[in-house]
Target: Coronin
Amino acid sequence: FLDFPFQTGRIEPNYPKVCGHQGNVLDIKWNPFIENIIASCSEDTSVRIWEIPEGGLKRNMTEAVLELYGHSRRVGLVEWHPTTNNILFSAGYDYKVLIWNLDIGEPVKMIDCHTDVILCMSFNTDGSLLATSCKDKKLRVVEPRSGRVLQEASCKNHRVNRVVFLGSTKRLLTTGVSRWNTRQIALWDQEDLSMPLIEEEIDGLSGLLFPFYDADTHMLYLAGKGDGNIRYYEIGSEKPYLSYLMEFRSPAPQKGLGVMPKHGLDVSACEVFRFYKLITLKGLIEPISMIVPRRSETYQEDIYPMTPGTEPALTPDEWLSGMNRDPILMSLKEGYKRTSKIVFKAPVREKKSVVVNGIDLLENVPPRTENELLRMFFRQQDEIRRLKDELSQKDIRIRQLQLELKNLRNSPKNT
Model:
């Protein structure tokens, strides 16, 4: 993947890339507390931590500061914990969610309650709850440290694809497909997933609907894969809960969307949300700003309340011991100034085994690339050949011993 923090416009074809994975990269996430740290996951079964140098890349980056192996299949999702530094969640095609403590570079917990591929993960505000959607058509609310499922919904009429916590409202919003294959959204009470509070059909298109929620303005944005438009709604505390506002339209279809953190927005222009839209047909990324039109040039307190900042509220040990704490808030009034002095220090690891919940996750790990598969094949062929030779020698030795025993029995002394 590419890193171009200080440039706009079309980049050069030979622009430096982060290219250390041995398979397709399936997900990347920026660290919310250390702005030059990225987590990525790949088909090569690894999760890797990258440190982008000051000023951006000058050459291709192939060496990660930390490589994490624990999944036995490709890894599709990574998520940083919202309030705790150096706690990372990864979900693999082995149906497991691993919780990594990057202070030691090891997985410390494993969530093993899913029976199929995990499609989406979302945290509540303080990170004490994890919501997941799964290919087994179930929506779950999980206590991450124990792995205990607190609530579970079998979504037969509303097949869930994506899920997002709606801030501190104790509600979840999911996007999915109805029994008639129309795209729809559903609102849930996190403490009772027996029935959705509301369901609303969107349209009959086939692309995935990606939900983005802004807790500061209570705005929900819906963007469809392959669509050119972005719908936005206001979330209320009383019925009908969802109020449709407007729709951004564009002729260029989007393959994916990224979001700028709050502290990176232009508050002088009353920008409340910024998307980065991946347009594959043109091979470019287009920024899309959501701006509240205001005549006054003064700071607008009502659209910029105190927002989660760049200081972690907990250390990994505190969170793992059972502590919960709300995010440390910051004001955007003076504009963003980098105040966090946290740096990432990769741990020195010597252990080759990864034991979580009494299970060695790296025991009999399958090959991660085609070259590894070929090397393993040739090693197995050599091992089979060696065992065949050893077996043949043992057969010869057995026949020799049988002959000697027969001679001993037939000797005159024994008679």
